[in-house]
Write a structure and sequence with these properties.
This protein is an all-alpha fold. The protein contains 14 helices and 2 strands.
Length: about 350
């Protein structure tokens, strides 16, 4: 398989899991009408409190609960600001993000006097599945967090599309006035969704520090909270789209890790990039009446042609390490820049506070 071997798939799955969990929580929150742009700070808080708890207890399960508790405090704060105090959600989200970064940086230098590197979570193979060709080791020989994340994501997707709770959640995010008139608790659902989102981000951060890396470092989430936010926008607020967007980000991140070691870019990377762009272009065109192209389609089309030409020519190209590190975030920016026609598919009441007394 060349660069795209089994170890590459294992790396991509490990990178994708925390982003996917955080993005799924954020999807629930945004469906209810609350956007938390401070997700990065919440993940950082979960990462730090989990690591801190691990140093004190030495118990992995209790430490995940510690990461969850730290993130939930920020979720409650976000809910109080956005739902009760009716503070602008973008402003309150930025404040949450800065607060998470500031507190974890301060406590990391003052509260942890003797940092230790911890062993990552053990992997457990699923009998009968772990020996499947290619996907066996990548999907069915992982740690507990990745299995739990897969279950949570599937359950949330089913709940959002096939239960009364999902219908009510969508109603609260689209037309809170009508939902309130029908007897649905707009305030209660928004509170639950906001806290749930923070909990998912906190567990994702906890996995980064004690489950994967084994240590806490300043800003160690490395923008994964922002990638989760970008995935929700790119997905057009659909659970399946979130999975696809996170997969693209994770594969890109895993690719840049491999390419840092290889030096020259092999032809198969250009081919894979062209296929990803082609999928994105096809998804944008799906369900659209006629063949009218938008400016975003034209931009993606130019990128696709350039990638195809590069794949055919296969030039001996090397890029500096900082550019490799920026690849997932550049891709996220491109996704956001070309998602202009999806913003009208956002929940109609997203980021708009619900004022019952004015209805």
């Amino acid at each position: 398989m060349g660069i795209f071997d089994v170890a590459f798939l294992v790396s991509a799955v490990t990178i994708a899991a925390p982003i996917l969990l955080a993005a799924t929580g954020e999807l629930v929150s945004e469906k209810a009408g609350v956007i938390n742009v401070g997700l990065e700070g919440v993940m950082l808080t979960g990462a730090f409190t989990a690591y801190w708890t691990m140093l004190g207890t030495g118990n992995m399960f209790v430490s995940f609960l510690g990461g969850l508790a730290g993130a939930l405090l920020f979720g409650v704060l976000m809910a109080v600001l956005a739902i009760e105090a009716k503070v602008d959600q973008i402003v309150s989200g930025i404040a949450i993000g800065l607060l998470g970064y500031g507190i974890t940086t301060f406590l990391n230098s003052d509260a942890i006097k003797d940092p230790k590197t911890l062993a990552p979570m053990e992997r457990h193979g699923i009998p009968g599945l772990e020996h499947l060709p290619v996907v066996g080791q990548a999907l069915f020989n992982q740690d507990v967090f990745i299995y739990v994340t897969a279950v949570v994501v599937v359950l949330v997707a089913l709940a959002m599309t096939r239960t009364t709770w999902g219908v009510n959640l969508k109603a609260v995010g689209e037309t809170p006035i009508a939902a309130d008139a029908a007897g649905v608790s707009v305030r209660g659902l928004r509170w639950a969704a906001t806290v749930f989102s923070a909990g998912c981000a906190g567990l994702a951060g906890a996995y980064l520090s004690i489950g994967d890396v084994g240590v806490f470092r300043e800003s160690m989430t490395g923008g994964r909270g922002y990638l989760a936010l970008a995935a929700v926008l790119f997905s057009r607020w659909r659970p399946g789209g979130v999975g696809l967007a996170v997969t693209i980000f994770a594969v890109t991140d895993a690719t840049q890790l491999r390419l840092q070691a290889l030096g020259e870019i092999p032809r198969e990377v250009w081919i894979a990039a062209a296929l990803i762009v082609l999928v994105v272009l096809a998804l944008r065109a799906r369900g659209r009446a006629g063949i009218r192209l938008t400016r975003g389609d034209a931009f993606i089309g130019v990128v696709l042609i350039a990638l195809v030409v590069t794949a055919i020519a296969a030039p001996k190209t090397t890029l500096p390490v900082p550019l490799w590190l920026a690849m997932p975030y550049v891709l996220a920016l491109v996704a956001l820049a070309t998602a202009g026609n999806t913003r009208n598919q956002a929940p109609a009441a997203l980021s708009i506070p619900y004022l019952r007394s004015e209805t």
